Amino acid sequence: MEPSPTDAYHHGDLGRALLEAALELVAERGPAGFTLREVARRVGVSHAAPYRHFAHRDALLQAVAEEGFSAMRDAMVQACECHETPQSRFQALGIAYVRFAVDHPSHFRVMFGPHSTKDDNASLARVRDQTFGLLLEAVVACQQAGVVRPGATHEIAIAAWSVVHGLAFLLIDRPSRRIPPEVAAEELARLVTTTLMEGMRRRD
Amino acid sequence: MEPSPTDAYHHGDLGRALLEAALELVAERGPAGFTLREVARRVGVSHAAPYRHFAHRDALLQAVAEEGFSAMRDAMVQACECHETPQSRFQALGIAYVRFAVDHPSHFRVMFGPHSTKDDNASLARVRDQTFGLLLEAVVACQQAGVVRPGATHEIAIAAWSVVHGLAFLLIDRPSRRIPPEVAAEELARLVTTTLMEGMRRRD
DNA sequence: CGGTCAATGTTGACAGTGGAAACATAGAAG
DNA sequence: CTTCTATGTTTCCACTGTCAACATTGACCG
Q1: pLDDT tens string B78-106
Q2: N or C: which end of chain A has fewer CB within 10 A?
């Protein structure tokens, strides 16, 4: 029962095919251009077929979001592994976050769009928590290494998430023309995380 | 020429009435529940009437966004005026930003939603720039007072915007259950801005 | 082997939406 | 009073999400 794309009545693995087509569609036309019927069209299936695999339109979008969170988490973990000290690992985490958003803006928007943030979806909520978990662990590691002031772990992690999350949105939305377009995302991410870590530094 | 409330033809300044109804609708049902026809219905006018005042659905949403940016800018300016030192003025700006988002989440989402960020709308782009302008001025003031390291003004302002923008979204979207729900927005905003300013501090 | 059944896919409907075109009306301008 | 133009209405269209009824298929069981 491999998904051989024959023109059989039964598709083999339609759920997976729908998800992949949805990913492509979102990447191509953005979250607004996403349409259940268009996804079905691309897979070559009738417009009601998706309902056998996803309860409603938003469920498919949530699956897209979940896929995105997994990919981002993996990218963050991978970026983290290249570094040794808790500080640089922490920073690598943040930079990977921003980079993912800049590289996959539509996907990132779906991940934090209105259909994905209501957590009636357990698996989506879990992978979202994992993302924040990475930041939390990094903060703890920095605290244990004595490079970040102790206490208020959650609050510090929220601050860290805020800064990369905000920068990510500013870079993909460009809400002001006074943000110079030539600024490199990576450099900015480095500056922003450095500044924040400096502010969280343990002072003696 | 802008239609002043006096030159009422049939309805009597329908444009304004539509905008106000749109504001209410967004506040009630969120950006997703916003519908041109529902707005028309609430004003008691046919579903095609809005097209005499707004080129398309997104234009009305952009007007809502513009209204929101004006209100937020005013709130920020007002919060700023209560303080003396450049640092506390800067921080007040950021806290007002977060507070506005938390107090008007739907409105805030529209302001940074996908329909408002493409800047084919001159007046919307202008008021967006003004918001960033406030941050820029505050950074310059802090630099002149010697409490923020000189240079890289734009980058520092972007960092400041990032942190309040990100915190705003995290607070209204709550993307992780590991963000404790009881944390007060205001305190968090204070912590986050303090941390950032500490990081931007001039070091001797 | 054949029959039954649940899973999967299709067809056709429905209400709701954004948008365009043709028509209607009322106030201003002559 | 007539005419013109800005505003509002009606009517239509293509498209969407969703549902119910129907069709097909492979798997399981006698």
Answers
A1: 999 999 999 999 999 999 999 999 999 99
A2: C
Instruction: Please provide the size of chain B in residues.
Output: 204
Question: Exposed (0-12), middle (13-18) or buried (19+): which is B48, by Cβ within 10 Å?
Answer: exposed
Q: Using CA coordinates, name the residue in chain B closest to A33.
A: B114
In chain A, DSSP assigns E strands to none
User: Quick check: A26 contacting B, CB < 8 Å?
Assistant: no
Distance from CA of B98 to the nearest CA of A (A): 11
Give the residue-averaged pLDDT of B62-89. 97
Q: Does B114 touch chain A (CB under 8 A)?
A: yes
Q: Would you list the DSSP string of A75-98?
A: HHHHHHHT--SHHHHHHHHHHHHH
Structure token pair of residue A176:
């002001």
A181 touches chain B (CB under 8 A): no
Cα B174 from Cα B82, distance rounded (Å): 30
Shortest CA distance from A109: residue in chain B: B114
Distance, CA of B133 to CA of B146 (rounded, Å): 20
Hey, are the CB atoms on A176 and B117 less than 8 Å from each other?
Answer: no
Out of A158, A176, A192, whose CB is closest to B129? A176
Contact A80, A96 (CB under 8 A): yes
A58 Cβ nearer than 7 Å to chain D strand: yes
Cα torsion through A114, B97, A127, A26, rounded to 10: 40
For the cut 50, the answer to whether the pLDDT of residue B185 exceeds it is: yes
3-state SS, residue B182: coil
CA A157, A31, A99, B193 torsion-angle sign: negative
Element holding B125 (H helix, E strand) = helix B122-144
Instruction: Supply the pLDDT for residue B87.
Output: 96
Q: Is the pLDDT of residue B10 over 70?
A: no
Does the beta-carbon distance from A158 to B109 stay under 8 Å? Answer: no
- Altogether, the residues listed in chain A come to a count of 204
Give the CA-to-C1' distance from A139 to C16 in angstroms. Answer: 49
